[in-house]
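Regression test case RT-17, inverse folding.

Input:
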């Protein structure tokens, strides 16, 4: 297993729909291991295959909930159903979200409180997970990556303008930009 470079917003692989996985073979198993290692090194709570330059419908997650229980897994060719979005003002702290493909930035984004994730795990078994709160947010964020959508694409005013300024200031937004967790430091 190896830590892979994470693509930064603007790279074409991040902005296109990923292809379905047709077989879980040694290459897919190795990719998932690399993704888990990359996510841990970043550190992050989720990582989609397009973020490491592979346009396939796979994401991994690893998060410890408030009860100290590890929530971790792999979703291959997932489907996601969500409850309607809540209404009201955004909570800048409770709804703050970040992305390893827009490193170091966080902005509030409204997500559904509950989600149902179905898919195939790494052993080829079908699964179904009902999630709420932060885990539902992780699933929505990573599933978006598989459809070529970054969380910045969903931000509303004034946060959409602010993220645009950050991307321009850091000269992101073009193909081929990436960073390597544990090696590259992307602070201002």
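Golden output:
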């Amino acid at each position: 297993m190896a830590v892979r470079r994470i693509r930064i917003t603007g790279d074409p692989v991040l902005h296109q729909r990923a292809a379905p996985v047709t077989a879980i073979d040694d290459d897919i198993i190795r990719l998932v291991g690399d993704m888990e290692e990359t996510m841990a090194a970043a550190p992050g709570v989720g990582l989609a295959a397009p973020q490491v330059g592979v346009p396939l419908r796979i994401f991994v997650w690893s998060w410890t909930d408030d009860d100290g229980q590890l929530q971790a897994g792999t979703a291959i060719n997932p489907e996601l159903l969500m409850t309607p979005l809540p209404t009201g003002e955004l909570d800048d702290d409770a709804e703050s979200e970040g992305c390893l493909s827009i490193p170091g930035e966080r902005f509030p984004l409204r997500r559904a409180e509950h989600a149902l994730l179905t898919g195939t795990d790494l052993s080829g078994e079908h699964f179904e997970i009902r999630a709420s709160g932060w885990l539902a947010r992780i699933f929505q964020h990573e599933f978006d990556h598989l459809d070529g959508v970054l969380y910045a694409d969903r931000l509303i005013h004034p946060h959409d303008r602010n993220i645009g300024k950050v991307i321009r200031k850091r000269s992101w937004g073009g193909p081929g930009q990436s960073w390597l967790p544990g090696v590259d430091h992307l602070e201002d």
